[in-house]
Design a protein that fits this description.
The protein is α/β, with parallel strands linked by helices. α2 links the parallel β2 and β3. α1 crosses α6 and α4 packs across α5. The N and C termini lie far apart (46 Å).
């Protein structure tokens, strides 16, 4: 990504097929200070950017816009990208046909492009229409396996610049059984370390617990592994920042995503924060468990 002067105005144009999560993405950008407008006629955008923007602006455009024209949108994108006073990015929310079909089935909605035909026909048509925009996108966010929570977190990670312009580092933990997280820059495998899952007095806890973290750190291989990972990461972060990268994601995986990867991610995030990097941390599988727990209305 290019670096822009601090006073440069920001505009993000978000598009993608119906059902890919555009509304969720726009709401997430509102959370980090953007003014978000959905389904704004593309013909009005040039007039909008002629006057100073009161805040960073996020616009949602898709095939349901009343004046949608692929050629007009592509021309608009090139015009915005060519404005020297504008920090512009085209964000495409990508999603597989299977995931889109499932989402339409779950909500019992008809596809807006083919309301009187099977949903699959509308999905296929829209994917073909939007293919040139997908190819032109500056940022591609794959939402097929994302929950709304995942997408909100990813948008915050990608576009929240409230840290005075310094590169934002996110450290994640995950389970290999559930697949690799999306949009990750570095992945490290922790499955060779001794597993607290097989210790009955530790199984119920996760890697944020001091006893679990201590058990993982006692593995004779952990010190060498962690030291080399930390050395590698700390040597590369300034290089990525120098290239203008505003966000970088480091992920640690293990079998269940509860113990070894969590403890290692916590330890690296703490080490990087001490060296003054902007750091956030996510534990994908722990978030899933928390989201799936029934709400009883009282503390358990």
């Amino acid at each position: 990504m290019s670096s822009f002067p601090p006073d440069t105005e920001r505009l993000i144009l978000i598009t993608g097929p119906a059902g890919s999560g555009r509304s969720t993405a726009l709401k997430a950008l509102e959370d980090v200070g953007f003014e978000a407008i959905d389904n704004m006629p593309s013909s009005l955008v040039p007039r909008l950017v002629k006057s100073p923007l009161r805040a960073p602006l996020a616009l949602g455009i898709d095939t349901r816009n009343r004046d949608f024209s692929l050629n007009a949108i592509l021309a608009l994108v090139e015009m915005l990208a060519g404005l020297p006073s504008l920090d512009f990015e085209l964000v495409y929310l990508d999603c597989s046909d299977e995931a889109l079909d499932r989402r339409f089935s779950e909500t019992r909605r008809r596809h807006p492009l083919r309301p009187d035909a099977p949903v699959s026909e509308g999905i296929a048509l829209e994917q073909r229409l939007l293919a040139p925009l997908r190819q032109r996108a500056d940022v591609l966010v794959e939402t097929s396996a994302m929950t709304p929570h995942d997408l909100r977190a990813q948008m915050h990670h990608l576009f929240d610049r409230n840290g005075q312009g310094k590169m934002h580092v996110q450290v994640q933990s995950f389970s290999f059984k559930r697949g690799l997280p999306t949009s990750v820059d570095m992945v490290f495998d922790c499955r060779f370390l001794n597993n607290p899952h097989w210790e009955m007095d530790l199984r119920a806890f996760d890697g944020r617990d001091a006893r679990v973290a201590e058990f993982v750190a006692r593995d004779p291989r952990f010190g060498v592994f962690f030291g080399r990972v930390r050395e590698l990461v700390e040597s590369l972060l300034p290089e990525f920042a120098q290239e203008g990268k505003s966000h970088l994601t480091i992920a640690f995986g293990c079998t269940g995503g509860r113990h070894r990867s969590v403890a290692t991610a916590e330890k690296l995030a703490e080490a990087l924060a001490q060296t003054m990097w902007r750091v956030s941390i996510r534990h994908r599988e722990l978030e899933r468990v928390s989201a799936e727990m029934p709400k009883t209305g009282k503390d358990e």
